[in-house]
Amino acid sequence: MKKVISTWLALSIVYFVQAQQSKSNPSGKCNAVKEPYSAYLFVYFTGNSKSDEAIRFAISNDGYHYRALNSNKAVISSETISSTGGVRDPHIIRGADGKTFYMVVTDMVSALGWNSNRAMVLLKSTDLINWTSSVINIQKRYPGNDSLLRVWAPQTIYDAKAGKYMIYFSMKHGNDPDKIYYAYANKEFTDFEGEPKQLFFHPQNVSCIDGDIMYALGKYHLFFKTEGAGNGIKQAVSDNLTEGYVMEDKYLQGTTDPVEGAGTFKLNNANEWILMYDVYTKGKYQFTKTKDLQQFTVIDKDMTMNFHPRHGTVMSITRQEAERLVKQWLPFDDVITNVTSKQVKPINVVFDTAKKTVTIPVMPGTNLNNFNPGIVTYPGVSVTAKTSNFTNGPVKYTVSIAGKGSQQYSVIAKEYHNAALVGYYADPDIIYAEKTGKFYIYPTSDGFNGWSGTYFKCFSSGDLVNWKDEGVILDLNKDVSWAKRNAWAPCIVEKKINGQYKYFYYFTAAQKIGVAVSDNPTGPFVDSGKPLIADKPEEVKGGQVIDPDVFTDPKTGKSYLYWGNGFMAGAELSEDMTSIKQETVTILKPDRTFREGTHVFYRNDTYYFTWSENDTRDPDYRVRYGTTDGPLGKINIPENNIVIAKDTALEIYGTGHHTTIQIPGKDEWYIVYHRFNYPKGITMGEAAGYNREVCIDKLEFNADGSIKPAKPTHTGIKPVVLKRK
Which region is the signal sequence (predicted)? Predict the structure, then answer.
């Protein structure tokens, strides 16, 4: 009888532990903490340089909006804990006692090569601030691993049945594929109890890496990255932690881009889980949500972060733990700049560290008599102000952090019209559509590493100031069969054919130029099914087939297409607007300042050819012009031919790849261009060249028709008034 009772009691404990794991713990371990979870800790690294390969922390109140701690700098020195001087892929869990924390990281510096590491680092803490650590070099620790090439992405889970912490990770030996292994940690969490054993591999996959195990819905769910017939996140499910995993043969990620570093966590107070992963070729993270661990919905639009994480994990924390982290690692300055009002242009908030002044650019029409910038507070943080009226100048704010004191700031809210579009966009093309009586901007979707965007959007306005996001109008992955990468530099023209308006949209994809057609300026657009221009003209040896520009000659009604990087080519379009007249292809010759981004417009019997000089990553990226007497004529270069250039006093850089717009019925002109993001762009190095934003400023002419150098501004233009028909 005693034996039966003991067995029943043991099983009851196991079921209790599993229930606790399923209900509140994404790490698969018992949670003895009594205080309810009220926040989240995101642990991550940031990149492939040695300074990026370090453990960083971020905090969130709701699991959707994250703020970096310690100003996105390392919270633990990689030099002091690792054998290589760098660590990657941090994973953190709460221990079975509810108050001890365990973290494991890859001991690796990528500069030494992807087959350079043999070790991992084990860390332990009771307060999330102070950590002890030890290194396990598997090749040195266990004989017979001479062919071991790499040890990647360790993670930890509490095995309730064994009463131990199981560490699992991928290893690659020689020409064998990467496989997932496991070993139990010793009681001190400083070493393994025994040699690693294989946990999972499926021969259908070229490799299995980046495992993440979660106990939920009565099963162990192993999420992992696979390569082979595809590239992405799959899961395998088992009743047992250490064996019996059955792979479900479907990809779970919500993108066709390569991904890695799957991480799962349960939302506090909800029966929902988040599956997140690193879209590493884009410099982005993607988040999905699920209720059944089968159907995953992309929720990127709900997420915000002020940092760019690589392969990290999220753990639920209590209010007390959050307060401790905030006190240790959240600067006052990071609180006052964390504004979330929908009336704010968040990527353009400016902070003057010396003057302790925050300048908040707001959307057109924002009521500054009663404005709440939406400054986010965290446990232990309070933010107070005596007024919400910003019309009389700066408003004094006080930020207080428990146990740390307080700091005062001057906060300015002001309506700035540049950037014109909220977010990262570049290479804008603009038209006025007679069909709708509105303006439309068609930009490159920016903010992706190496210009790796794959979709195009459209924005509409009735006054050039208030812009509506019309959404994605062409997605290479869904709408284009002949190219899936590098969606760049589109242009559009409105034509009336047989009494009906048609819109011909020319775009760059995979360094070729395509054309799509729609009956409306906002789409849907239907691709022609093949490139319009796939190769450089025969006489051109270098450069790229990119950056189309379309121009309709008001004298003849004929339309022309221009293109090229490193060369400027032009040709007359056929009447169908989806092909060019090959016999008209002309290599135009401006001067050696030409780089890319041709744009042609007509004013007072003069054809203006404009282009961008230098590289888009260069602060001196700028626009020059010449004139001709016809759409394919000889380009004459004025002595002073700068159209728009940087303004260092205003910290405006990289002003280029533009178009122009004339207000219908008026000799009133504007230039639409992109610049580096303000204020951070100039600090980003080459990355500034793919973190750009669209601006609009006045374009004026001298009496002789020459272009006055335009002045780039932050204030932008006033709303234009259109004549009613």
Answer: 1-19
For 97-129, write each residue's pLDDT tens digit.
Answer: 999 999 999 999 999 999 999 999 999 999 999
pLDDT at residue 9 in the model = 32
Task: Please state, as a whole number, how many other Cβ atoms lie within 10 Å of the Cβ of residue 704.
Answer: 6
Q: Do domains 2-329 and 425-699 have the same CATH topology?
A: yes
* Nearest to 547, CA basis, from 522, 512, 571, 499: 512
Q: Which CATH architecture has domain 425-699?
A: 5 Propeller (2.115)
Instruction: Return d(Cα 190, Cα 104) in angstroms, integer.
Output: 11
Dihedral sign for Cα 182, 185, 191, 193, please. Answer: negative
Query: Distance between CA atoms of 161 and 15, rounded to whole angstroms?
Result: 10
Question: What is this structure's pTM?
Answer: 0.90
pLDDT confidence bin for 283, thresholds 50/70/90: confident
Dihedral over Cα of 54, 150, 276, 676: its sign: positive
- Side-chain-facing half-sphere of 649: CA atoms under 13 Å: 3
Give residue limits of the domains in the chain: 2-329, 332-415, 425-699
385 pLDDT higher than 70? yes
> In CATH, what class is 2-329?
mainly beta
- CATH code given to domain 332-415: 2.60.40.2340
Asked if the peptide bond before residue 679 counts as cis, ω within 30 degrees of 0, the response is yes
For CA atoms 476, 481, 483, 485, the dihedral sign is positive
